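Example record

One chain of 239 residues, shown exactly as stored in the release files.
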Amino acid sequence: MPTRCETRAGRPFASLGRGAGLRYGAAVNTSRVTAADVDLAVDVAVYLLQRAETDAWDYRAGPLKWTCWETVDHIADVLLAYAFQMGPRHPPLNRDVPVLVEPRRSGGPESALVADRSAGPPGLLQVLEAAAGLLSAVVRTAPEDVRAFHSMGIADPEGFAAMGVVEILVHTEDVSSGLDLAWRPPAELCERVLGRLFPDAPTGAEPWPTLLWATGRGSLPGHPRQAKWRWWAAPEGER
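Predicted structure tokens for this chain:
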């Protein structure tokens, strides 16, 4: 599969305001991760990805073996899976909700949800928005004491929101590398998910490079790239 050049085009994506067309129906909490953070993450990701060249989506997504298209499919699929985990009246505590997932090609991501290629990139991004909207709605309406299974710990709604945000942010990094777009999500958003999922992450560096380090995608001064990494899905006090 072809790859794009490694040189990034465009300016760093540091922050966006109302003029960018993003949703700000609710203030984003400065400490806890909320449904508003899921909304913000998908909004800034879609704002960036809609600038991609139409013929670039089959390039490899950065370090992954998947295409950029497949990686966005994967993000949407994971967000939907997180919403499914919290959706039942009695969420499962020992397994995933039993949805069939399978790769569409050898070496591709296992997925229950894929976008219709005939709809083009706008359709793909609409699928991503829809999946994020479902996760946001479930997180927003679920009682705080709800718990559901995740392979890295029994998670609460905040945990699923934080995991969804990280999926969006770090895989958009993978995709933006393949699409030759500059990507730098809001620092405050990165800081909140670091605090929730990576309590042992180094302090002192900027939040976005630290999140990339925490997910095995970069190094920090005094901290080489991690070969293995994990997050803590369970709330503090239940780990």
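Notes: The radius of gyration is 17 Å.
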